[in-house]
Amino acid sequence: MASGAQGAKGTLYRGREGMWSWVAQRVTGVLVFFFLFAHVLDTALVRVSPHTYNQVIGTYKNPVVNLLEVGLVGAVMFHAFNGLRIIAIDFWSKGPKYQRQLLWAVVGLWAVLMLGFLEPMMQHTFHEWFGW
């Protein structure tokens, strides 16, 4: 006889919000790590050759990189909020019971803050592409 936790849906975790939260936490963590690695390398150029550093930084001032910066802010914010959610689940006695609600709170907070950040962060790109 199948256990109550598995039933017709399989496990309670696979394919559900918890799994996607786990995947998103790992993916955003890796993305932030690679950004920090690249950031340390390009910042180290200032000691080697300030002229080369200025050239590299100049390549970052375009609309495509601006879109990547928006993605980076989104990744950092989700990773931070979801990390706080994981801490709450681990250290709050009722955390596991409310993990789904906490995840949707994280997603809602993330979406509201991203909407607030979009306009100021995208001003340069809007100006370049649309003349706004």
Automatic annotation (TrEMBL):
One of its GO terms (biological process) is tricarboxylic acid cycle. It holds the Pfam family Sdh_cyt. The chain crosses the membrane at residues 20-40, 60-81, 102-122. NCBIfam families: succ_dehyd_cytB. Keywords: Heme, Iron, Membrane, Metal-binding, Transmembrane, Transmembrane helix. GO terms for molecular function: electron transfer activity; metal ion binding. PANTHER family: SUCCINATE DEHYDROGENASE 2 MEMBRANE SUBUNIT SDHC, SUCCINATE DEHYDROGENASE HYDROPHOBIC MEMBRANE ANCHOR SUBUNIT. GO terms for cellular component: membrane. The lineage of its organism: Bacteria, Bacillati, Actinomycetota, Actinomycetes, Catenulisporales. Coiled coil: none annotated. Its main location: membrane. Belongs to the cytochrome b560 family. It is found in: Membrane. It comes from Catenulispora acidiphila (strain DSM 44928 / JCM 14897 / NBRC 102108 / NRRL B-24433 / ID139908). This is Succinate dehydrogenase, cytochrome b556 subunit. InterPro entries: SdhC_prok, SQR/QFR_C/D, Succ_DH_cytb556, SuccDH_FuR_B_TM-su. Its cofactor is heme. The keyword Heme applies.
